[in-house]
Amino acid sequence: MFGEVLSVIWLLLLGHTLGKSATNLQEVTSARQGRFFPFYTIGRFQNSVCTGGNNLLGTCQISGECSDNGGIATGSCSTVTAQAVCCVYQLACGRTTSFNNTYFYNPDFPASYRGGNRCSMQVSRCDESICQLRIEFLDFSLAQPNGDGVCQTDYMQVTGGSSRVPLICGENTGQHVYVDFNGNAAITIAMLTTGSPFARHWNFRLSQIACDSEYRAPSGCLQYYLDESSGDNLIQSFNYAPMPNPAPNSIGVTGTRQLANLRYGICIRMGSNMCSITYSLPDGQPFAFTVTGDVGAIDPTLLGTIDVSSQACTTDYVIIPHPSQNGVLLGSGTDRFCGLGFAPTTSDIKPFVVYVVQDNTEVMDIANRGFSLAYSQNQCPVV
Known about the structure:
Blueprint: H1 2-44, E1 49-51, E2 57-62, H2 63-68, E3 72-76, E4 84-91, E5 95-97, E6 102-105, E7 118-123, E8 130-141, E9 154-159, E10 176-180, E11 187-193, E12 201-210, E13 221-225, E14 233-236, E15 262-268, E16 274-280, E17 289-290, E18 309-310, E19 317-319, E20 323-325, E21 328-329, E22 336-339, E23 345-347, E24 352-358, E25 370-379
Parallel strand pairs: 4-6, 5-7, 13-15
Antiparallel strand pairs: 1-2, 2-4, 3-4, 6-12, 7-11, 8-10, 8-12, 9-11, 14-25, 15-24, 16-23, 16-25, 17-25, 18-22, 19-22, 19-24, 20-21, 20-23
């Protein structure tokens, strides 16, 4: 009998020990899984770009890693493991990120932001293979510049990169900028707003571009357009927004106006078997090129025509390298375009680029809106 009692006690102790061991084993396994998943993310499947809910771009990650970093899981993204989710990062003021395709938006977006303070985000590169940051303005509406084209009430400021981004304000939805990382230094995007009444709002997609990526912008390009099609596409100056014809913008009338103190390059990726590019006014938009001069001082029917265009430009202008019109080369010193009109112009210099130069005041340029130019790439001649 005594032996049977000892046997029962021994079995109970053994069961307790085994149970405790099993619990410890589970804890160790969980701990190892917690450490293992980041390695698993890199070693077994790529942290590739994925499409999450509402067509937002995200990063394919283990679900635990996504939640730990404040991301939103929006469905599966890998056939390797069921725990891989498309992680979308949507962040507001005062946050930092090192994740690709992070979204930076104003507090309470899509509701408007009253302003009155500084709202910023810091972006560090994912790893040493990254060279650029593309800031895509999915939504961008800040207060307009003053009558001189200077951003005073509101503006976006980008610092920390090795390339310059000018102060930008007004209406810029659909625009974008590229910024070069300066080594491992973070890039800061700051939205500086006053308390003046305005329904301001923004939503930016922040994409990190690898040094060897085909999407990397050439050196010196603040903007880089990737559409290589032969159809008409648009390049526009900042704070350019369509207005109803035939009324152009004017001082004292709510609307967009040209920004001052800008110097940058707009580059366009050259398509296969394309040898030149032609710029022209968009169809039905004769007011799409008002860069220098007084809009209100001329006959409105002349706006957009060659009669009010100019190539003797010293203040605000665009440069189109090696230009020709109607198949005739314009010659040396005639690559600057300003005035209040624009004729179709072709360039065969590669890479395809337009340079924008605007001085620090718009005092003499009354009611100018900047430019909107359609571009179409031309195939190489058959030889």
